[in-house]
């Protein structure tokens, strides 16, 4: 099984993209999970990168039970990270039998920008064949949609610009495993969704995509 992640921000059309991808056989892209994966990734990073535990893992001396780090020499950072990723797949993604491509869409990627790079590294390392679709929308369209309408427009545009800069910067440094789509463009021209399909390894079926796009979303 391989993995695809839709990386975006709120009211960007990411749910529509989720629905479009799910119209393909063997694909199960789940919705948002309140960014629970970020917390798992933090746990892995802290556990794996702590200098004291790294020293203990490399040491040939076994700490006795009076040592404050007793037992930590037995731990393994990569094994812990893979276990967390497997648990997330099993308990959060819950891919049904026959799933070839799993994953999720999330809009909270830029909420903690200092942890963004680490979170992406976690996904790349522990989810086989990970691919990332960066989904954007015109900032004017976002500002006029949903809860964004309740906020100061200048603040909204600042938040969106910062989020987009973060996502696009990462994408440009990882072009072999990521691509960019823009909601305002692909709803007018389905062909613009062909690149992510090719990146993922899915058959591009314009008729099936068009049918998925005809169903009006109610959120």
Give an overview in words.
The protein has helices at residues 14-22, 36-49, 51-58, 77-93, 116-126, 139-143, 153-173, 183-186, 194-200, 206-214; strands spanning 2-7, 27-30, 101-106, 131-136, 178-182. With 219 residues, it is an alpha/beta fold. The chain starts with a strand and ends in a 5-residue tail after the last helix.
How far from one another are the termini?
Answer: 30 Å
Number of strands: 5
Sheet with the most strands: spatial strand order: 2-3-1-4-5
Radius of gyration: 20 Å
Largest sheet, described in full?
Answer: 5 strands, parallel
Beta-strand fraction estimate: 5-15%
Helix/strand structural class: alpha/beta
Mean pLDDT: 94
| General shape | globular
- Low confidence ranges: none
**H/E topology pattern:** EHEHHHEHEHHEHHH
Contiguous helical run count: 10
- Approximately how much helix is present in the residues? 40-55%
How would you concisely characterize the structure shown here?
This protein has 219 residues and is α/β, with parallel strands linked by helices. 48% of the residues lie in helices and 12% in strands.
Could you list some keywords that capture this structure?
219 residues, globular
Task: Write the topology of this structure.
Elements: E1 2-7, H1 14-22, E2 27-30, H2 36-49, H3 51-58, H4 77-93, E3 101-106, H5 116-126, E4 131-136, H6 139-143, H7 153-173, E5 178-182, H8 183-186, H9 194-200, H10 206-214
Parallel strand pairs: 1-3, 1-4, 2-3, 4-5
